[in-house]
Amino acid sequence: MIIYDRLWKTMKKKGMTQYRLINYYKFSAGQLGRLRKNAYVSTHTIDVLCTILECSVEDILEFRMDEAKKEVWKGRDREVSPK
Fold first, then answer.
1. What is the pLDDT of residues 14-42, one digit of tens each?
2. Which stretches of 12-68 are assigned E, i.e. beta strand?
3. Separation of alpha carbons 16 and 55, rounded Å
4. Which of 11, 26, 62, 74 could form a disulfide with 16, with the two C-beta atoms 3.0–4.6 Å apart?
5. How far apart are alpha carbons 13 and 67 in whole angstroms?
6. What is the pTM of this model?
7. CA gap 35, 60 in Å, rounded
């Protein structure tokens, strides 16, 4: 699962507000909503944020293993393993 908690910390550290992103940089309020909900956003959106904030991807997002999904994928490995 991709988590965007780091984005809000980076924005605070850099003095960037959501208002400024929307009104000065014309960043989509809908995309900010998706980021708040840890929903899917495109790599283009991540690229734009990294450019605006002058930071790396690691300053915006983090991957956390979803154990339930991990188990599903493990089960699929067993299904396709050569015998």
1. 999 999 999 999 999 999 999 999 999 99
2. 62-63
3. 12
4. 11
5. 31
6. 0.79
7. 10
